[in-house]
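Listing S7. Sequence submitted for prediction.
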Amino acid sequence: MIRFLFRFLSLVALCIAVVAGILDSIASVSASEVMVTPLGIAWLELSPYTLSVVSDTVQREWGPNAWGFAIRWLLPLPAFAVFLALSLMLWMIGYKRRSPAGRFAA
């Protein structure tokens, strides 16, 4: 059941990454130059309230250094790349190799 949850969350993150990539490509074509939306700007445009809630929560629970890491390294990255990496990570957590001896092997 837990493996299914990780696989499902991986699919959701992949769908978000695809939508973010499509929006970036549409913006790039319409502007006639390459445009990539950073995660921080995409998050602010989508829901500015949740960004402040997450900021307060991370600073309270993990300390200001963790939020500094997010500000410096995570939020400037392209949104589609962050969600693709998250999708890959969740898929790897939920992955189980097939048994080489078959279904009924001990």
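Caption to Listing S7: primary sequence and predicted structure tokens for the chain studied. The longest helix spans residues 2-31. The chain has one domain: 8-93.
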